[in-house]
């Protein structure tokens, strides 16, 4: 394997940068911070889980609506990096703003979280599309998987810093309240994300594009309408997007709702943070392993393997009732969460026309984001109707079954 180029390394470093957000804000600290703030204001555990699910659904719906249109415009020369930078800055600013919201204002916390999530997910649309600009087709699996691996490794550093501050505050080693410690974690996340994005902004450039046209926005809508009419002609892309729609729903829901689910089981915040840290450490080598195995057994085969692991996770979650069970579940997720996302990204990148990468990654985003609406809503509604989070997690197995069934009809990635 040839050494990674400066562009490839700079692109991969963004996974290192923004994974701090996905771990600290989306998965670990913010859900616990929010649930504590909601509880202090008389909101029940089941309702706070539901409100968080509704918020995630709302944020992903907004971005799903914007994704294809923005992606179509960004395919024009010189636009991709501008859109990336815009959403990246929104995300960093929204994350830093979380530190300024009073704990009793739990509604404002959700609003600010929505803004930061839109920035995070929006920047990822254009970041993913940059894969066609930085890597040759035969290197995409490894570059994408190595990016996820770096993300898991890199996220452990700000996560450790955040855990150290939070646990020290809880043990009264440092004179900070739990809320103040959480706010410091938000600031650490924003600083880490911003600092390690600089190499991508400096070195990565848009190699594949279409020339600008008069009336850029109107032309973009016309191109988007034309693609929508013809998307069924791209059989491999269309089938893959349908499969992705279902299985990535379950993946994303399990990741974003895991700490809330663990808290409902009575697992302490300290134990949850430790479990999530170990999950990141374990996930890093497994993400890289998925990339290597995909070179030998094909990306599609490894996608089957990852989906199979998640089906086991859903089944096991139904019977989980202790912290030890949560550890087992977390380790199972760690073996496949990075690999399945990395190979989905590279599999799709191999199928898209390079000069229209942003437009097609806009559809990749809309399928993924609309799926992310269904999962949290399913968790939220089931949790409120049954009062049992385990039943809600088990219901996600249906999404994986449908996804793997459709994936069987997708042509190989060399199609």
Automatic annotation (TrEMBL):
CDD domains: MFS_YxiO_like. SUPFAM superfamilies: MFS general substrate transporter. InterPro entries: Atg22-like, ATG22/LtaA_families, MFS_dom, MFS_trans_sf. It holds the Pfam family ATG22. PROSITE patterns: MFS. One of its GO terms (molecular function) is transmembrane transporter activity. It is a multi-pass membrane protein. Keywords: Membrane, Transmembrane, Transmembrane helix, Transport. It comes from the Bacteria. PANTHER family: AUTOPHAGY-RELATED PROTEIN 22. This is Efflux transporter. It comes from Bacillus amyloliquefaciens (strain ATCC 23350 / DSM 7 / BCRC 11601 / CCUG 28519 / NBRC 15535 / NRRL B-14393 / F). The gene is yxiO.
């Amino acid at each position: 394997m040839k050494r990674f180029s400066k562009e490839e390394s700079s692109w991969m470093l963004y996974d290192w940068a923004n994974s701090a957000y996905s771990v600290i804000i989306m998965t670990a600290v913010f859900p616990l911070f929010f649930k504590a703030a909601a509880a202090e204001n008389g909101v029940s555990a089941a309702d706070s889980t539901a409100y968080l699910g509704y918020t995630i659904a709302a944020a992903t719906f907004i971005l799903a609506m914007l994704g294809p249109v923005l992606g179509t415009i960004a395919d024009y020369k010189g636009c991709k990096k501008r859109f990336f930078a815009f959403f990246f800055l929104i995300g960093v600013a929204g994350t830093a703003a979380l530190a300024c919201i009073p704990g009793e204002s739990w509604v404002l916390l959700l609003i600010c979280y929505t803004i930061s999530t839109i920035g995070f997910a929006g920047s990822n649309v254009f970041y993913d599309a940059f894969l066609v600009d930085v890597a040759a087709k035969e290197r995409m699996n490894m570059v994408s998987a190595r990016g996820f691996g770096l993300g898991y490794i890199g996220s452990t550093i700000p996560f450790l810093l955040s855990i150290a501050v939070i646990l020290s505050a809880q043990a009264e080693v440092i004179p900070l309240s739990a809320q103040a410690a959480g706010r410091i974690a938000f600031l650490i996340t924003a600083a880490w994300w911003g600092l390690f994005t600089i190499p991508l902004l400096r070195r990565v450039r848009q190699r594949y594009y279409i020339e600008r046209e008069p009336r850029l926005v109107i032309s973009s809508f016309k191109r988007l309408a034309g693609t929508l009419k013809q998307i069924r002609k791209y059989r491999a892309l269309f089938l893959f997007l349908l499969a992705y729609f279902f299985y990535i729903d379950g993946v994303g829901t399990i990741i974003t709702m895991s700490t809330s689910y663990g808290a409902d089981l009575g697992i302490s915040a300290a134990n949850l943070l430790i479990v999530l840290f170990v999950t990141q450490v374990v996930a890093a080598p497994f993400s890289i392993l998925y990339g290597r195995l995909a070179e030998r057994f094909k990306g599609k085969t490894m996608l089957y393997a990852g989906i199979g692991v998640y089906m086991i996770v859903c089944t096991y979650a139904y019977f989980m009732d202790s912290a030890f069970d949560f550890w087992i579940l977390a380790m199972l997720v760690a073996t496949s969460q990075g690999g399945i996302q990395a190979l989905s990204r590279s599999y799709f990148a191999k199928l898209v026309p390079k000069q229209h990468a942003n437009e097609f990654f806009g559809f990749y985003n809309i399928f993924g984001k609309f799926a992310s609406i269904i999962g949290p809503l399913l968790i939220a509604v089931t949790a409120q109707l049954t009062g049992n989070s385990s039943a809600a997690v088990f219901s996600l197995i249906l999404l994986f079954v449908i996804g793997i069934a459709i994936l069987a009809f997708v042509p190989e990635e060399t199609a």
